[in-house]
Specification:
The chain has helices at residues 6-38, 53-69, 87-113, 115-133. It is an all-alpha fold and 134 residues long. The model has no long low-confidence stretch (mean pLDDT 74).
Length: 134
């Protein structure tokens, strides 16, 4: 490797480090966002028992008898349909290891052998990952 390729090699190395980190942490970040949206705020969480539990039981029983007397009030609104699956996101999440490995192999191949090394490195890494999965 010549010295004029060194800044480009460092730049692409940083690019792959950031891209790979986002590819593998993306699913964890999505799970964290879902958890944060469904968890109630700390001010709404009650940790002390309610001393007025008997009155609550009476009021809930009264509410149940009112609902039985008026069954039309128990109809719930229809839930919205779930969002359609995103085929691109599914494909990337299933093949992110192979995609990142091929990119890393292409990067190393380019750094060592030039433009021909891009194809050789990508093919080598895809084969290596598929062979390890068997």
């Amino acid at each position: 490797m010549t010295t004029n390729k060194l800044p480009l090699t460092i730049l692409f190395g940083l690019l792959f480090a950031v891209t790979g980190g986002n590819a593998f942490a993306g699913e964890a970040l999505d799970q964290l966002k879902d958890w944060a949206n469904t968890t109630p705020p700390a001010s709404e969480i009650k940790t002390t028992p309610n001393p007025d539990a008997a009155n609550m039981l009476k009021s809930s029983l009264a509410l149940d008898t009112k609902l039985l007397a008026n069954p039309a009030g128990t109809v719930k609104a229809a839930e919205p349909p779930p969002p359609a699956p995103n085929p691109i996101k599914e494909f990337i999440s299933e093949n992110k290891t192979t995609i990142f490995g091929a990119g890393l192999g292409a990067y190393l191949g380019f750094a060592l052998f030039g433009p021909v090394g891009i194809l050789l490195g990508a093919i080598f890494m895809i084969g290596f990952i598929k062979m390890a999965a068997v």
